[in-house]
Structure formats: C-alpha cells, structure tokens
Amino acid sequence: MAPNNAHTALWPAPHASGAVDATVHVPGSKSVTNRALVLAALASEPGWLRRPLRSRDTLLMAAALRAMGVEIEEGMGPEGTGEAWRVLPTGLRGPATVDVGNAGTVMRFLPPVAALADGPIRFDGDPRSYERPLNGVIDALRALGARIDDDGRGALPLTVHGGGALDGGPVEIDASSSSQFVSALLLSGPRFNQGVEVRHTGSTLPSLPHIRMTVDMLRAVGAQVDTPESGGEPNVWRVTPGALLGRDLTIEPDLSNAQPFLAAALVTGGKVLIPDWPARTTQPGDHLREIFTEMGGSCELTEYGLEFTGSGAVHGIDVDLGEVGELTPGIAAVAALADSPSTLRGVSHLRLHETDRLAALTKEINELGGDVTETADGLHIRPRPLHGGVFHTYDDHRMATAGAIIGLAVKDVQIENVATTAKTLPDFPDLWTGMLGK
Ligand SMILES: O=C(O)C1=C[C@@H](OP(=O)(O)O)[C@@H](O)[C@H](O)C1
Ligand SMILES: C=C(OP(=O)(O)O)C(=O)O
What we know:
CATH class of the largest domain: Alpha Beta
Pathway: Metabolic intermediate biosynthesis; chorismate biosynthesis; chorismate from D-erythrose 4-phosphate and phosphoenolpyruvate: step 6/7
Enzyme class: transferase
Subunit structure: Monomer.
Oligomer: single chain
Bound molecules: shikimate-3-phosphate, phosphoenolpyruvate
Number of strands: 23
Binding site for 3-phosphoshikimate: 30-31, 35, 178-180, 207, 326, 353
C-alpha cells in the first residue's frame, strides 16, 4: 500500500474557476515574533507579545527559551484584547537542549543568547539545519569570548558552554550568506559586557530590511544602536550595553505570507483585502506593493488594510531580489504564468535556504512544462503553457505556497507535503480554500 503520511501526501491544489474576491486575515510575522521573543527573554522586566504567530518556527523558539529558564505564559494581553504571550525573563541557564528544526532565526539568534546562560546548551535540528551556514555566528561568538564545541564544519550540531556572561566588543563577520548572522549578534548585544560592534566584511549583504527590523525592534526596547543609516560607518553596527525594557507589542501580520493571497488576486484578475497591513514596516513583504504592481496589479493601502486588485494581465519582471529574497518563490510562480519573460537577480544565497530554492523552483516549474534556467545569482523564467503534475516541496513552506499559486491557473497540480507550510503558516490550506470559497 502506498504510504500516506503528511510527507508523501499529495494535496490537489485548488484551481480558480474565476476571479477571487476575498478578505484574508494573515497570522503574525515569523520574523517579528521570533525577534520579540528573544528581546523579551533578554529584558529586565516582563513583557507581552500580542497576536504572536504560532507556527513551527515560533513554537521552537518559545520552547528553546523555556528550556533555558524563561517563562512564557498564555494570556489575554493587558487589556484582555486578544491572545497573547506573557514573557517573564529569568536567569538563563543550562543544561538545556534546543531543537532548531529548520528555523534560520532559531539556529542563528539563539547561540548568542546561550553564551549568556549559565551552563551548556546543546543545539540540534532537522538534517537540513546541518547544511545551513552558521559559521558567521560561531566564529564571532568565539572571538567575543564564548566557548563552543562543534565538529569543525561551522554548522550544527553544537554545544555552547554558557559562562553566564560574555565580554563582547568589536568583531568582523562575513554575512554574505545570511543577514541573520548580523541580526543574531545585534539582538543579544545589549547584554554583552562591552556591547557589540559588528563589521560586515563580505562583498554582498542580503536581506537588509531584516537587519533594519532588528535595529528598530532593539531601539523600541530601549537599546542604543548606531547603524550605517544613522551616520555610522558603512557595514558597521554598534550596540551599547544596557538593560532592555519589557514591552507590550502587537505583532504585525506576516507580509511574506500574505504573498500567495496577493498573487491569487494577480493571477485570477481578482481582488484580495489583507486587513491590518501596517502603514510603516520593515518587513520585506511590503515591497510586494511595488513588485506585484509592476507585474500587472494595483493596490491601495487604506484604514482597512491593503486592497490588491489584479487587472487580468500578468507581466514578467526584471528585478534584484537581494533585499527581499524570501519573496522569490512566490514571484517565480507568478512569473511562470506571465505574458513575458522574467529575470530574478541577487539571490544566490537562496541555495542555502530551507532547500536550494533556485534548483527546486527550476526543476518543479520545468516538470510542469515550464522553461526556467538557473543563473549564477537567480532565475530566468520564460512563460510556457503549463500542465498538471506533482509539485515537490523539499520541506520548504514557500515551495508549497508557490505551487499553490501555479495551481490556481493550471489544472491538476498536486502539492506534495503541503503540511510543510506549518513552518510559518499552519493555516495555509484552510486560508487558501477559504479564499476560494471552497
Ligand atoms: O532575519 C530574519 O527574520 C530573516 C532574514 C532572511 O534571511 P537571510 O538573510 O538568510 O536570507 C530571510 O530570508 C528569512 O526568511 C528571515
Ligand atoms: C529563509 C526563510 O526562513 P529562515 O528563517 O529559516 O531562514 C524563509 O522563511 O523564507
């Protein structure tokens, strides 16, 4: 009998019979939730996270902090307005074991926190987590005074032997493979004895909006941060040592997870409203307003949220996605359905994401009849009439949502392991069918 567990199960991607017209409430941001958890755990007083994302990546972050002694309670928020987590920071301690799953934020943001704990903290995760780069964090922490045992590959698994405090100070790293190296050091920086000065030495630095998100959230809890954008040296970020405040923070919807729903409006010539789209945000998903407009839609940001409307036409695009790499799979899916070719550039680091996203997108779109080629730093996509088939996801949530976008326009697409969307959006299948009124 054929196995039918979540991994091998095939989900028939719904085909859109007409233009979508829906309001979709998108759950909280993964990147904001996991930063907020770390900052609340490092604070000197309790804090609240309202409307946190509850997904595999954020539940792993919460579990890891709890394992190090932090209390995270379920609550209703200070005014009883909606569900919340109350975070009670305590002295961080080991021994503890952290399962990072395949969460970049957990595997990169927590080793610096562990260096501040008292006792050994062991880090392990999914097989893919062993292949994702961590050398920037490991080497920097050692240079700043931490003791770490690893197998010498600059990757997981490893043990951080927390000494209860860390000297900190200046450090050089090459963060060209992941902006999360910089964010990781900055987030814990206020708790290092001398703070931290991070100097990026590589030739490129991806995902700058995510570094801005780190800086903004640090400042919001009282940290002093100097950045290249605030008049400092290029590629240098400096965090002054000091106590962090416990805050009451409402988590914004995840705008990168809004992407497939906006794409649905674009490819069906329909209309989607995403309530609570923030007027100002550091989330990279906010760039979809320009990118999907260039690809044929239009949008309006009102007091109700973002209303995105497709025109019925979908155009190709030539775009550098280096700042917003996590949007690439969804843009590639739309580009495969466009009326002209696309070139997506600046994203070679995607080869080290949840899977090699450039190879996976090329293979899966081409297996449906597409014409995609990999370049040194991205993809060329020449739209072709596509046909049904199995779209493999390689344990990558954004491959699953990319396949679902294609399925709207192409009959009989089956997504293998749609359950992998639980990494950041466990409700995806229900939200998707709800959007389509199925
Ligand atoms: O800091 C963050 O929350 C993230 C930073 C980016 O990582 P990379 O710079 O490794 O691409 C992004 O792709 C990831 O989804 C989330
Ligand atoms: C790259 C991503 O995740 P991670 O936080 O695991 O790096 C992503 O969500 O697209």
